[in-house]
Each structure stands twice: as C-alpha cells, then as structure tokens.
Amino acid sequence: MSKKRIAVIGGDGIGPEVTKQGVKVLEKLGQITDLNFEFENFNIGADHYLETGELVTDEVKADLTNFDAIYLGAVGDPRVKPGVLEHGILLDLRFSLDQYINLRPIKLLDSKFTPLKDKEPKDIDMMIVRENTEGLYAGVGGFFKKGTKDEVATQEMINTYKGVERVIRYAYEYAQKRGKENKLTLCDKSNVLTYSHDLWQRVFKEVGNNYSDVEKHHMLVDAMTMKMVRNPEVFDVVVTCNMFGDIITDLGAEIQGGMGMAVSGNINPEGVSMFEPVHGSAPDIAGQNKANPLAALLAAAMMVEILGNPEEAQMIQKAINLSLAENQTTVDMGGKLTTDGVGDYICSVLG
Ligand code: NAD
Ligand code: IPM
Ligand code: MN
C-alpha cells in the first residue's frame, strides 16, 4: 500500500470545477488499487486575495514542499488586474519551488479531434520541454517616464547558463528515453535574439556532445508554428524558452483537440512538482458545469506516473481514451456531458 499526499489548489473560475473531477478519479483509483491518496485543499486564488490581500505566503510555500505533489486548477479572475494572480500565485509557485522544467505533451488521442486535415495520432505526438523559471517571465524591467508621451517600458529576457543548461540536459535525457525517434529540436529565435538565444545555441551544442545517439535539430520559432500545423509528424522532443513554450503549447493544444485536452507538468526533479491543465480559468464558461475536465484528468495521470506509478496512470489514460471513443465528453469535444458527468463516467469505467 502506497500513500501519496497531494496539495490541491483549485484556484479560480473553472479551476475548482476540473480539479474536483481529478480528486474524484484519484479517490476511485485508491479504492481499486494499492495506491492511495490523501488530499489537502489550499484556499489560494482570487476570492482569498480579494478578502485578505494575500497571494501565497512563505508559510504556505514551505508547507507545499512537504507534499508528494501539487495539483492545480487555474488562476486568473476578471475582478483582479491581469498579472497579479498569475505572477503572484502561479509563477511564484513555479519559481520558488524551482520547478524548472515544464513538460507539455502534444498528443492526439483520436483523429476526429484535430482540425488538421489527414493527421492521425501517429502524426501528432511530441513533447515540449519548456524552460519554466526564467526568460521573459523573470519579471525584470520597468517603466521610464511612465504615463508620459516619452514613456519607455522594458521587460528583460533573463537567460542564465545554469538555467539553460539544466533544461537542455533534461530535454536530451528525455529524448533518449522517450522511445520515439531519439530526436531533439531546439526552438528559438537566434536570428534576432542574438544574445539570449546565442547562449541557447552554444549550450545546445555543448550538452549535445554527451548525447551522440540523439538526433539534433534546430528550428526558429516562427517556422516552428508553421511546421506544427503543416508537418507535426517531424517533431519528437522540442526544447524551448519560457515564452515560446507558452505560445506553441496553446497551438499544440488546438491540434490535439483543444484547450480542454492539454496538460502541463511543472517539474522539479529534486523537489515537489505541480501538475495542471494548460488552460486558464476560462471565466466565459465558469460556474456552468460545462468545462472539459479531461486536461485536468490527464494532469492527474501525469502526476501519478511521475510519482512512480505508470500502471495506475495508464488506467486513467485508458478511461480517458474510452470516453473519447464513446463520445462521453463535454460539448467542446462534441459530447453532451457536464463536467461532473465526464468525471463520473471516467470513475465508472476506471479499471
Ligand atoms: P483560457 O484557457 O482560460 O480560455 C481560452 C478559451 O478556451 C476560452 O474560450 C475558454 O472557454 C476555453 N477553455 C479553456 N479551458 C477549457 C476547458 N477546460 N473546457 C472547455 N473550454 C475551455 O485562457 P484566457 O481566456 O486567455 O484566460 C483566462 C484567465 O486564465 C486569465 O486570467 C489568464 O491569465 C488565466 N490563465 C491561467 C492559466 C493557469 O492558471 N495555468 C493558464 C492560462 C490562462
Ligand atoms: C500557462 C499560462 C501561464 C504562463 C500564465 C497564466 C502565467 O498561460 O500556464 O500556459 O504563461 O505560463
Ligand atoms: Mn499559456
């Protein structure tokens, strides 16, 4: 019997609606396998912020390191200025828990869900390894003569050797063990970002010397978006900076069936990792029981797998595959079920 302690941060909008399904499915998994979960809910998000002015305290951050993993819904609320919750909660957690790898699989599960013509599951199957603690997200910059016609606003892109090296090394390791084509593509903008991405280029080459069995490729990010739509089959593992990883994984979400299908693991290989859907709090559909919970369930599966239980993760994955095959899905996937309805269906076919 193995017990995992999971910190649950539902967050805002559809966040708590979808994590509720994940908790339900993991509880069911606990009933039918030897893997058990203990959940603790953390009241973090817009409501808590509006009531108390608090985002994530140092005590909460310290407490989170005592868990096996963190399961997050989403943050972001129209009542709060953009950036406050995103930086103050999500990015703060990723940064302070040093979750320097962001794993974002782009995997089509069933041909009927991609808008791309003639593409099948074998064609859309890649792993984006996104740098997750620096780049344009570092929050370095400022205003000069703010509010005047002479205003200058800067936002610096921070790239450290340590940060670039560790994500590139992780990506090489990943390409080696993923079992597809042992292929790694560096996605950057080295033709324009002649300092930042020059460092990426050099480190990619240097670290690559230790991975002679990995096929190395390079693609500029603009061409990358074109190629992801035209020939997604050319990609296996892709490593990229924080900002580009954010953008290309929304594109990736769409080619694999939409925002309701895309999953994200914020990984600290030596510490506590955090699993979440790629999508946000979707205020336009919040509170209507119609959000697709599958991304959150895929995040739960990824969490179970990374915690060392691939067979149990596979059980969740199989149940999700069945829900897609049987059209037991929410409206965005062409089905008729509610958020709760999909969670209940997954529980009913699990195992
Ligand atoms: P979003 O991902 O919340 O929504 C984009 C579109 O996709 C919307 O039309 C929404 O209805 C739809 N959508 C998203 N998830 C869905 C689901 N599970 N099922 C069905 N449809 C779904 O992006 P946005 O509208 O740009 O952002 C809304 C808020 O979320 C903002 O405050 C933003 O900062 C925040 N955000 C948070 C995260 C996160 O916490 N990880 C990620 C992205 C955006
Ligand atoms: C994501 C989100 C976040 C990001 C925002 C909300 C800070 O878009 O997880 O993709 O840019 O990383
Ligand atoms: Mn994003």
Keyword list:
metal-binding; Isopropylmalate Dehydrogenase; binds 3-isopropylmalic acid; binds manganese (II) ion; binds nicotinamide-adenine-dinucleotide; NAD; alpha/beta; 351 residues; two-stranded antiparallel ribbon; 40% helix; oxidoreductase; ICDH/IPMDH; magnesium
Task: Explain what the structure shows.
By secondary structure, the protein is of the alpha/beta class. It folds into 2 domains: 179 residues, Isopropylmalate Dehydrogenase (3-Layer(aba) Sandwich); 168 residues, Isopropylmalate Dehydrogenase (3-Layer(aba) Sandwich). Helix content is 40%, strand content 23%. The protein contains 11 helices and 12 strands. The strands form 2 sheets. The chain has a 10-stranded mixed β-sheet with strand order 2-1-3-12-11-4-5-10-8-9, with helices on both faces. A hairpin with a 5-residue loop joins strand 11 and strand 12. The chain is globular and about 55 Å long. The two termini are 17 Å apart. The model has no long low-confidence stretch (mean pLDDT 97).
> Which residue ranges are poorly predicted, with pLDDT under 50 across at least 5 consecutive positions?
none
Number of strands: 12
**Molecular shape:** globular
- Any guess at the CATH architecture of the largest domain? 3-Layer(aba) Sandwich
In round numbers, the mean pLDDT is 97
Q: How widely separated are the two ends? A: 17 Å
The CATH H-level homologous superfamily of the largest domain: Isopropylmalate Dehydrogenase
| Order of SSEs | EHEHHEHEEEEHEHEHEHEEHHH
* Strand percent estimate: 15-25%
